[in-house]
Amino acid sequence: MKDILAQETPVWRHLEATARRILESYGYDEIRLPLLEATSLFERSIGDVTDIVEKEMYSFIDRNGDSLTLRPEGTAGCVRAGLEHGLLHNQVQRWWYAGAMFRHEKPQQGRYRQFHQIGAEAFGLAGPDIDAEMILLTARLWRELGIDAVRLELNSLGTPASRAAYRERLHAYFSAHRAALDADCQRRLERNPLRILDSKNPALAELIAAAPTMESTLDTDSRAHFQALQAMLAAAGVEFVLNPRLVRGLDYYTRTVFEWTTTALGAQGTVCAGGRYDGLVAQFGGRPTPAVGFAMGIERLISLLGQVGPGQGCDVYLIAVGDPAVLAALALAERLRTALPDLRLTTHCGGGGIKAQFKRADRSGAAIALVLGDDELGAGTVTAKFLRREAAQETLAQQHLEVQLPSLLARARG
Ligand code: HAM
Hints:
414 residues, 15 helices, 5-stranded mixed beta sheet, Rossmann fold
């Protein structure tokens, strides 16, 4: 679990603000859901034989004896909330969310136990157009963030029926090579052979590469959906690579699955991933409701942006020398904050002489120091000193300070 320090938050905020603006420009509304859900919600949606459910969930028994889990992802909670509030039946919903997710994974670069996602989910739309919309939206985000080292991988997992047929084919194929499988994959063979395709064991790479692909069992409707999606992406100028081994680490997917990946981050190269999950709402007792979504890993995108700068600091640092000036400075600062809501004004705290206060002003990143001492107090003025460029200090009337400060700041910044 990582601390996000002050020098990093400007990049986080830039990313979050850009994502929010784009999501809202496509008509997505923000929802905020609990960090804790019933453990069974994740077991039933993500799937028993997945890494997340088998070994990564932070689960505990609460004081009522209920098993709760810190959310490892956001989709299951969206489905739960949509059903609970009657928002899914016969309705179209486009939602987005941002927040912390928790997985007890082996920590390494780009993989944390508390990490952050921004995700989107759309309910009630069955066609490939909404799949394309989601992909276009993410492509736009990369463009606006200036991220170009990503590529889009696509696959279709078909309907539950065609997937079951594929399971059978995979089961037959891997059963014939059972002895070559590691213990993990032998277990997956019986319970969920698709998950073998996700194995990172290099000794199995060749065997997996030669396994039959989903393509061979894909049903006609899923094939048409997938081809229509590809045509839409091509028409919109979004490049993609078909990856028949892309099965995703969660079990709820049907038809379209996609991942945006990069080679710039080492092993943890997926920055955004998602797909369709047309069966999940019905699985939780709702009417059959088509759904599609994605989530991106904020930490990974931040590493791609790679520009951790100094903290933003403040614009103006207010120095006050002597007790009467400290009192007057407090009132003056409050007045300026009311008049200029965007101004970042730091008042000196902790006392000390003028030299020490100037030192702090310098470190604060401010462009201007305003000084209030006995003389200024008597005359009803403040002394303004530019901190980032050479210029004579100026004396300003306290009374008109809010009017003069914006242009003074512009000059102080050159
Ligand atoms: P996911 O592939 O498990 O999908 O996670 C989405 C993204 O979250 C990953 O591509 C990665 O960027 C980031 N991520 C996952 N685990 C970690 C970690 N331990 N540390 C840092 N980043 C991580 C989902 O969560 C689905 N709910 C996506 C979705 C939404 N599908 C449909 N709707």
